[in-house]
Prior knowledge:
The complex is a heterodimer of chains A (113) and B (127). Chain A is mostly helical and 113 residues long. Chain A contains 5 helices and no strands. Chain A has one domain. Chain B has 127 residues and is mainly alpha-helical. In chain B, helix 1 packs antiparallel against helix 2 and helix 2 packs antiparallel against helix 3. Chain B is globular. The interface between A and B is large, with 97 and 100 residues.
Amino acid sequence: MRLLAIGLVAGLFSALLGVGGGIVAVPLLILAAGYPERRAMATSLTAIVLIAAVGAFTYALHGEVKPGAAAVVGLPAAFGAIAGTALQQRLANRTLSLAFAALLAGIGIWLIV
Amino acid sequence: MWSLLLAGGLGVLAGVLAGLFGVGGGILFVPTLTLVLGLTQIHAEATSLLAIIPAAIAGAWRQRRYGNVRGRDALLLGLAAIAGVEAGVQIAEALPEHALRRLFGVLMLVVAAQVAWRVRRRPAYPS
């Protein structure tokens, strides 16, 4: 039940803000569902495959997806993701949480100013 | 040409963030698409969802091998999110772009504070 609520909120923000929903799902999995960081992040990333596919499809129906631009950033990102998951296995959950919080705060400030 | 290389480089960085933190990487994709490739905010948000898919598949595949994925939970999360996505698309098209940015910014600060606060209150434990 809690997972369904987290998914619903993550999906809403995913479409609203163009993120895969992970930026909402990860903290909710940690804060509301009590997941350890690594499991929250891995499970979120798996769910994102589905969330982003549906989001992209819905936007594509409105003609707002640019496939060429998506390939330019998205294909290199696949290699980055493999490096990122490898790096994650070497970090403590506590370190991951603090780094994640710093990332979120940085994005928040950059968007507001 | 240089903008394509820069966009690709930022794409790699977005992928690292995606793999490292379990986010899709849209946080970097969207600004890259608007500032480097010149897309509008709404096109960038739509396109970033497509761009996220290869990185999420690659990262999820590795995480599964590391044994960190709760498959059933991920499926439930994803399915519930679909309903949310449909609602979000409708709202995104009705809201002005600068309001979306502000909304996103405030949300990030609140969540960052909560995640950091939780670590501060919790003693270190072996991961």
